[in-house]
Amino acid sequence: MTDEIEWWAGLDWASEKHHVCVLGRTGQMIGECDVPHGGAGLTALSDWLIQRTGGRPQQIAVAIEVPRGPVVEALLERGFQVYAINPKQLDRFRDRFTVAGAKDDSRDAHVLGDSLRTDRQAFRRLAADDPVIIELREWSRMAEDLQQERNRLANRVREQLWRYYPQALQLTDDLAADWFLALWHQAPTPAKAAKLRKTTLERVLQAHRIRRLDATAALRMLREKPLTVAAGATEAATAHIRILAARIRLVNGQLKLVHHKLDELCAKLQQAMERAPGQASEQRDVAILRSLPGIGRINLATLLAEAWEPLRRRDYHALRALSGVAPVTRRSGKSCIVIRRLACNKRLERAVYHWARVATQHDPLSRQRYAQLRRRGRSHGRALRTVGDRLLSVACTLLQRQIFFDPDHSVDKVEQGAAAA
What we know:
- By secondary structure, the protein is of the alpha/beta class.
- Helices cover 59% and strands 10% of the residues.
- The chain contains 18 helices and 8 strands.
- The strands form 2 sheets. It has a 6-stranded mixed β-sheet.
- The longest helix has 42 residues, at 233-274.
- It is elongated.
- The model is unreliable at 278-282 and 411-421 (pLDDT under 50).
């Protein structure tokens, strides 16, 4: 289909209106226009492209700076070939047309269209995402936003406790936990802690299934000598924490809902893949990824949401570049510098980092590899990136062979499993 392209269009998108420029096979300008953002505007854009070129949507390639969104979805729905490019790459292509640094919507649209015409290999072909993947991506990002909000609220609770009640900080590091808020509600001040009964504290711990903390030890911590604070400081801090606690309980409830939804969507995606024609005898991708050590619910959802296409292609090199574990080499003459890759998907980068961190705790080979790198003087972050790089390679290999992860790492077993599959 890509060989049938007859016209190239560049689309400079914006929040209110989009500018589009259409070029012919030799680069001549065919037309350009502005369309407002909205259902009617995007429909008019598709109709204008077909009318102006006189061709079919499959013969028109459109370049844009974003990989997803309503503009991309509207064009894909009509059958256009849509290609995405990083804005930083577009900035380099712009230097071909002006060395003065001039920039405007019309110029950017022309640069996009002409660059796609001459350097299509620098662009990424887009395709419509699976509906489950779109939903999973949104819920995964909501989980991250809620977790960040939870951490912010917990830090504010910590600050208020430090003002008048530092002995409560000895109980746990997770000040946003439901059991800690319930315990604080029973003893919000040192004066209340002095009158708190051991049986009341035991009921709170038992209700939340907290076994790592003994009621006697917790009561002893809370009854340590309190701070001497100004009059009204304790009342002000407790009022602040009371407001924060209500918000934390809401966030905790929403996090539980989001985690349940992530599990549901991953299971739904796995079931959809199992029902795919010609795939009944093969292990499913989601189940294979879930079998890897250290993957977890959040990391699995992030991998599927942010790197679905590379995972489907088993593209190890794209995955390591997107997740930031592939280093960047700068070589010139006798100089050769290897630095960390900063241009990557930050959500995917964090997911692979935590995946590698947990894998070093549960996978002997990952733990051994991490220890070797640390002995060689590598930093904690670099060692984990190397472990994550290996895990991505293992994941792609398992997906290609359609077999589950073998904790024994036996080559013979892997080959036997591949032959059986």
